[in-house]
Design goal:
Number of helices: 13
CATH class of the largest domain: Alpha Beta
Shape: globular
Structural class: alpha/beta
Number of strands: 15
CATH superfamily of the largest domain: Type I PLP-dependent aspartate aminotransferase-like (Major domain)
Number of domains: 2
Strand content: 5-15%
Distance between the termini: 21 Å
Largest sheet: 7 strands, mixed
Length: about 400
């Protein structure tokens, strides 16, 4: 069976984790800072904070942005639910900005229109305090345009780059925070690099960095500069805010640091396989991915869209028949605003019509570093049989 995603663990990765397990620190040790520094330097950001997963990274990023009760967070409907849930964790309301039909990322023109409409109606409370653009499949959103809107309307930008470790945008790396306040990465096993589970927040703002560190670890500090009164002694700490236990272990950090040795290799192979898919699939009744000018995706996943005027089978049939041929497909994602939880909050499917059409047509083909060309040929041949049969 060929699955849609798979981690790649080398002997060097195993040795790196084993070295930590033989050391004095399994958590809160030096491996964390080494991994944080390496990712920050790779991306060109000043600060990085490693955490348990990308969901917790989004949560503390929203907390650091002072998102709270009565505030508003806007994000894309085509994402994993965490991109929206992070706002709800903070007590904020959530709204959705429809996607661009070409890239499947947040449409900056729809964002601009939605902002203008809220301002014109005098609904300042309906303007977002935080906007979370999602780099679907590893392709950056139009961050230059979104940043310009953030400057005009005063919202904080948190890039959800869970899919986009190693991706390029304009003259830099996704994660540089050139056009955002914070960027979040995911290190889940099927992502570009893995720490087993894990995530990270990058920023160039020292104040945000201090808050992120605080919220990661119970709101507790040993830094005298952050304490409300003098220390009682070398054992002393203070809880100065309500935080969480979102600490990454040194074992995870060691795995992530080792995986960084091959990040560019991982991305190059994914780009090769995507280019090959594009060529092999060009005569099938599908739309293959389109890349925005200025972006060079890292390709966490490979999404295609059915030409429903030429394909008469349902997606359920296609999924089942591909599985019979030894290939598992997936779908990224069900529009978040249609989920029962968000429907109960008043969201209607028709709010994001482009996302709905995307959902009718889209599915995800297998893509991972160790996928061979022979396996890719098998996937394409199976898909050809299913769609043309």
């Amino acid at each position: 069976m060929i699955y849609y995603g798979k981690q790649n663990i080398s002997e060097e990765d195993i040795q790196a984790v084993e070295a930590v397990m033989r050391s004095d620190f399994l958590t809160q040790g030096p491996a964390i800072q080494r991994f944080e520094r390496r990712v920050a330097d790779y991306c060109g950001a000043k600060y990085a904070v490693a955490v348990t997963n990308a969901t917790s990274a989004l949560h503390i990023a929203c907390k650091a942005a002072s998102l709270g009760q009565g505030d508003m967070l806007w994000t894309s409907p085509i994402t994993f639910t965490a991109s929206a849930n992070c706002g709800r964790y903070c007590g904020a309301d959530v709204d959705f900005v429809d996607i661009d039909d070409a890239t499947y990322n947040m449409d900056p023109e729809v964002l601009a229109q939605k902002l203008q409409a809220a301002r014109a109606a005098g609904h300042s409370g309906h303007l977002p305090q935080v906007v979370v653009p999602v780099h679907l499949a590893g392709q950056s959103c139009d961050m230059q345009r979104i940043h310009a809107l953030a400057e005009e309307y005063g919202f904080t930008v948190i890039e959800d780059a869970s899919h986009a470790t190693g991706a390029d945008y304009l003259d830099g790396k996704v994660g540089s925070c050139q056009f955002s306040d914070m960027t979040v990465f995911s290190f889940h096993p099927v992502k570009i690099i893995t720490t087993g589970e894990g995530g990270m927040v990058l920023t160039n703002d020292e104040e945000l960095y201090q808050k992120l560190c605080l919220y990661r670890c119970h709101g507790i500090t040993r830094d005298p500069a952050l304490m409300t009164h003098e220390s009682d002694g070398p054992w002393y700490y203070q809880q100065v805010d309500l935080g969480f236990n979102y600490r990454m272990t040194d074992m995870q950090a060691a795995l992530g640091y080792s995986q960084m040795d091959r990040l560019d290799e991982f991305v190059a192979q994914r780009r090769h396989l995507v280019a090959r898919y594009n060529e092999l699939l060009k005569d099938l009744p599908l739309r293959t991915p389109q890349v925005m000018e200025g972006a060079n995706p890292s390709w966490h996943i490979y999404i295609v869209r059915l030409d429903l005027t030429r394909v008469k089978k349902s997606k359920q049939q296609i999924f089942a028949e591909m599985k019979e041929r030894g290939v598992t497909l997936n779908l990224h994602y069900i529009p978040v605003h249609t989920q029962p939880y968000y429907a109960k909050l008043g969201h209607k499917p028709e709010e994001c019509p482009v996302a709905l059409q995307y959902y009718r047509e889209a599915f995800t083909l297998p893509l991972y570093y160790a996928l061979t060309e022979a396996e890719q040929d098998k996937i394409v041949e199976a898909l050809r049989e299913v769609l043309e049969g």
